[in-house]
Amino acid sequence: MHLTAPAARIGRGSCYAGALAAVLALSACGGGGGEGGSQDGGSADAASTPSVKAVPELAEMVPQDIRDQGSLKVGTDSTYAPAEYLSEDGESVVGFDVELFNAVAAKLDLETKWQSSSFGTIVEGVDTGKYDVGVSSFTINEERMQQAHMVSYYTVGTQWFTAEGNPADVDPENACGKNVAVQANTVQVEDIEARSQECVDNGDPEINISKFKGQDQATESIISGRNDAGLADMPVAVYAVEQTEGQLETLGKQYEAAPYGAVVSKDSTELAEAISAGYQSIMDDGTYTEILAKWDLDGQGTLDTSEVDPSAEG
User: What is the pTM of this model?
Assistant: First the structure.
């Protein structure tokens, strides 16, 4: 769970109006418990999502129980703009991740029922059957593939960001002694903990790491001055910078790019293969690029092929 884009090309609801509120989306726009059942999500961006028709051959790949149900229950952490976040109604989930998967579901002749959840509980929710799928900017890695199937669809790296002007003089390559914010249960946690340990091994002060339940909270802590910098997926970091209108800036470039994957239960191999075929179909017919272009995310990170359980190296 990163591309520089003009703010005008990034979807924005009233929950993101204004500098601080742009990133926080706390309270009415915070993640937790709400459900959005419509495919268009009710936002201007989602409303312009390309029309997608079902493909009978792909629909036949879907397990019969899911076909009978007619929809997919999708677990997501709706605090991770611009990938997945709550629209201005405070309930519907929108974002580029959402639009891509809605298009995949449409190819399979299924509707989507998006359910907001804490990021760290989604994989377990898929395993227990609470969700049919998890779509929440999950970076594919070996640990996650031991727990579930992962279906690749985009590639993203980690991006550092800080307050405008970098007042704490943070250097991502030497952040010893700095206060750094990350969202819990993301790949950025392992990254920053390894950097902190390297500081200690070299006789320098450890990095003071603050882990937050939601990315919105981690970002707010940098704006408020509680933390000096943060790490997040590149689209998320860049979106936060743009939406705060000059209060934040990125540090350096993204690194260690790896594929995102939709999460499907190990017991649902057929469904994973159907979803992969759905992603492949939107890649092949141009829908994939059309959606990503709306978010200025078509310049890097795109994939030509969707795979079930690909190499974690991307």
Answer: 0.76
